[in-house]
Design brief:
Order of helices and strands: HHHHHHHHHHHHHHHHH
Shape: globular
Number of strands: 0
Radius of gyration: 26 Å
Strand content: under 5%
Number of helices: 17
Largest sheet: none
């Protein structure tokens, strides 16, 4: 079972209290915590309230300085403005680096220094009327944060870098293929490895998927502009399958943060799969998808196959996955080829029926796995999917105000009943802590 960072922090606190009270020995406490990738000596807790308050205080100081400067901005000579911006950025980062080298602290200063660095780029460009291509400012801002994040192994700085890089990605993606995004993805993965951060790993994977979607849009629309086509669905089907199987592949890792990464990858790729199924439960959506596909030569198909074929090979080797999941992943490459090569209009209705049945079976399997193994996330995902299917089928086929109200009441009753049932299982001593298996 894997626990989120907040739950591990609480468990460490409880174990330390048990050791202090003499209920367990320090060795027993470490053995308990070792199952969740932490220990009694783990110093990553800190005081969350202290860190938040200090961060907000530093942010307010920066805002106050910006307001004072803004009030007198036009009266300050250009050279003084530029030197002041550069000096402030260097001072903030210098203090942060000094504090980090001296006692391993100073990340708050570096965070504010990174924001000051971005503000300085924008303001200096404004002073001297530089850079007609505005995404360049975001690019150089993220590029400047990257080495600092790698130097101090800071997840916070890496997330700030990714946030700025994503802004650059979506703005630059309007003008040209954003190949340089690979630099920021590599830097984030480097920080995640150094800091042993599962969360940063998964965020970086999500950013990578967004980047691949924009690159595919440029393949469709090159050299004029990006174009988003139905082939994006095909590619994302393959990517979700690959991420799901990678999660299973990483599950037995000896490193705790890689096991947590596996848990999150499996969970979010499963959720992505469920979300992807819902639109195709409508025959009109299936018809539009099949009609707009570009055939066997579709770039989305071949990129999807580059992900789906390795996923199918992993599914052949990973026997721990549920048979339904393994079967779907192993058959996905063939399905993708059939979608792009079949007679479009004639296959729309059968495809919609197949997707509805698949969604229904998936919901039932999730509920069954949740009840059998005591995993609340699977149980509630299955219940939620069943409710969504029932509602959209009702709205699609009947639909009026009174009927809608009845459907919502039925949905509320189902959810309440599920919650009561889950509570009763908890009272019976079942494991429903939200642990995630790798099914």
């Amino acid at each position: 079972m894997q626990l989120l960072g907040l739950l591990r922090r609480e468990l460490r606190s409880e174990c330390r209290q048990w050791v202090d009270d003499g209920d367990i020995s320090a060795e027993q406490g470490d053995r308990i915590l070792g199952r969740y990738g932490t220990s009694l000596d783990d110093g990553s807790d800190g005081s969350l309230a202290y860190k938040v308050l200090v961060g907000i205080a530093l942010l307010f100081v920066g805002m106050a300085l910006l307001l004072l400067v803004s009030a007198n901005w036009e009266d300050i000579p250009r050279a003084v403005r530029m030197l002041g911006l550069i000096g402030t950025t260097l001072a903030l980062n210098g203090v942060g680096i000094h504090q980090y080298l001296k006692r391993g602290a100073g990340l708050g200063w570096l965070f504010v220094g990174s924001i000051s660095y971005g503000a300085s780029i924008m303001l200096i460009a404004q002073i001297y009327h530089l850079g007609e291509h505005y995404p360049d400012g975001l690019f150089y801002w993220a590029l400047g944060i990257a080495p600092m994040a790698l130097l101090v192994r800071s997840r916070v700085l890496a997330l700030l870098m990714l946030a700025v890089a994503v802004l650059w990605l979506f703005n630059e993606g309007k003008f040209s293929p954003p190949w340089e995004m690979l630099l920021f993805i590599g830097a984030a993965l480097g920080v995640a490895r150094q800091a042993r951060s599962a969360g940063l790993n998964v965020v970086t994977v999500a950013v990578t998927v967004s980047w691949l979607n924009i690159l595919l849009a440029w393949i469709y629309g090159y050299p004029w502009r990006p174009e988003f086509e139905t082939g994006h669905f095909t590619m994302n089907m393959g990517l979700l399958a690959l991420l799901f199987m990678i999660g299973h592949r990483l599950a037995p890792s000896a490193q705790a943060h890689m096991r947590r990464t596996a848990t999150l990858l499996s969970l979010w790729s499963l959720r992505g799969y469920l979300l992807l199924l819902i639109p195709f439960t409508f025959s009109d959506a299936c018809s539009a998808y099949l009609r707009d596909l570009q055939g066997i030569g579709d770039p989305g198909l071949w990129i999807g196959l580059l992900a789906a074929v390795p996923a199918a090979l992993l599914a052949l080797r990973e026997g721990a996955a549920h048979p339904l999941a393994r079967g779907l992943v192993m058959g996905l490459p063939l399905l993708l080829v059939l979608f792009h090569g079949m007679e479009r209009e004639a296959a729309a209705a059968p495809l919609a029926v197949m997707v509805n049945l698949l969604a229904l079976v998936s919901a039932i399997v999730l509920i069954q796995q949740g009840l059998e193994k005591g995993f609340s996330q699977y149980f509630y995902s299955g219940v939620g999917l069943l409710l969504i299917l029932a509602m959209i089928r009702y709205v699609d086929l009947v639909g009026d105000y009174v009927g809608g109200a009845v459907m919502f009441l039925i949905a509320a009753a189902i959810l309440y009943g599920a919650a009561r049932y889950w509570r009763d299982r908890q009272l019976d001593g079942k494991d429903i802590t939200g642990g995630q298996s790798h099914e």
